[in-house]
Amino acid sequence: MLQISSAAASHPGLRREKNEDACCVRQDLGLYLVADGMGGHAAGEIASRLAVEAVEAFIAESFALGIGGPWPLDYDPARGLTANRLQIAFRLANRKLRAAIAADGALRNMATTATGVLVGVDGVAVANVGDSRIYRWRAGALQQVTRDHSWVGEQVRAGVLTESAARHHPWRNVVTRALTGGEDPEIEMSDITPEAGDRMLLCSDGLSGVIAEDALREIVGRATDLATQCQALVDAANAAGGPDNITVVLLQFDVA
Ligand code: CA
């Protein structure tokens, strides 16, 4: 059994007035999320906040459910209980956006990325929609666990762009999948098996789109406490110009 410690930081960056990112650190639920909202006026802020609240609410509601449910949406028997809780929570978050848009037309263009980790009774599940990222740091190596649902992400996977070129590309902000309140989006799920000493970094593109992975790896690997590392990540993005909102959540797994 591993015990988890965590820290988070969020900052508007140096060029944006508002912070449209949202995050959640719920040690009691084993839930950690980052969401990056998009949309005019206040809509981006509303989208990311609604999504985080909806995921948090369902994870709390489903805390004691077994495979038998009852589940509000289809349960995927090919996946474990924890993965199903997280996937259903993301789909419910999309429906929450749909209801908010139906109630207020000014919100119709809002959308949000969402990426999250849920630690449950049968393992650790990861879910992702959009271009926020989750990395695993293990023994000095940093590996991206999620895939970016973005135009530049597709070009990187196709071998057309390098990671560095992607960070500077004029279309770097084009997201190809998000929670929009439209049709149920395909949510990318994966299961991870943490080991003692592992760390996980969840972040919005205000960090990963600005700071190269080598620099992220160095900061995440420091021997300081997690809160200090979160602040160092925010400071690094701001030192690089802080072009976007920056949100980071850090987890560390230790022997209980
Ligand atoms: Ca962003």
Please tag this protein with its features.
five-stranded antiparallel β-sheet; binds calcium ion; 7 helices; Phosphatase 2c, domain 1; six-stranded antiparallel β-sheet; alpha+beta
Fold and architecture overview:
The protein is an alpha+beta fold and 256 residues long. It has one domain (2-255): 4-Layer Sandwich (Phosphatase 2c, domain 1). Helix content is 32%, strand content 27%. The protein has helices at 43-61, 81-103, 151-157, 163-168, 205-208, 213-220, 226-239, and strands spanning 2-11, 21-26, 31-38, 111-112, 114-120, 123-129, 133-138, 141-144, 188-192, 199-203, 246-255. The strands form two sheets. Strands 2, 3, 4, 5, 6 and 9 form a six-stranded antiparallel beta sheet that branches. Helix 1 packs across helix 2. The chain is globular and about 50 Å long. The site of calcium ion has 6 residues, from helix 5. Residues 36, 204-206, 244-245 line the site of calcium ion.
| Distance between the ends | 6 Å
Can you give the helix content as a percent range?
25-40%
Largest sheet: 6 strands, antiparallel
Low-confidence stretches: none
Give the CATH class.
Answer: Alpha Beta
Q: Please trace the helix and strand order, writing H or E for each element.
A: EEEHHEEEEEHHEEHHHE
Structural class: alpha+beta
Backbone CA Rg:
17 Å
Bound molecules: calcium ion
Query: What is the CATH topology classification name?
Result: Phosphatase 2c, domain 1
CATH superfamily: PPM-type phosphatase domain
Estimate nothing, just give the exact number of structural domains: 1
Mean pLDDT: 96
Q: What is the correct CATH architecture? A: 4-Layer Sandwich
Tell me what portion of residues adopts beta-strand conformation.
25-35%
List how many beta strands DSSP finds.
Answer: 11
Number of helices: 7
